[in-house]
Amino acid sequence: MAVGCGQSVELDGEDALGVYRSSDYGERVFCSKCGSTLFWRMADGSHTSVSAQAFDDPSVFDFTTEIFVDEQPANYAFANKTRKMTGPEVFAYFAKKQEPHHG
Predict the structure, then answer these.
(1) Are 18 and 30 in contact (CB under 8 A)?
(2) CA neighbours within 13 Å on the CB side: how many for 33?
(3) Beta strand pairing status for 83-85 and 65-67?
(4) Contact (CB, 8 A) for 37 and 30
(5) pLDDT digits 0-9 by tens, 40-73
């Protein structure tokens, strides 16, 4: 469960972060002291999704979207009504956000 924070993430104690390059485009960031997952980010810094449990009160966030549903295990299902996006839909969404705006 993560909260999409775009580029608006500010960190204290970056020296305690570990980074694992999990794909050509993304990185998983964790606490190098305890191993807790903190966030996932685009390698180019264009988007960060922070673990909901990293916030003091994660209950303030609504669970609205599931991503990569085409890759989820068969026994992985939530009762909430959510927007469900396949991997290709997720990539298309972020590609559209990266397109330059002309005006």
Answers:
(1) yes
(2) 4
(3) parallel
(4) yes
(5) 998 988 889 999 998 999 999 999 999 999 999 9
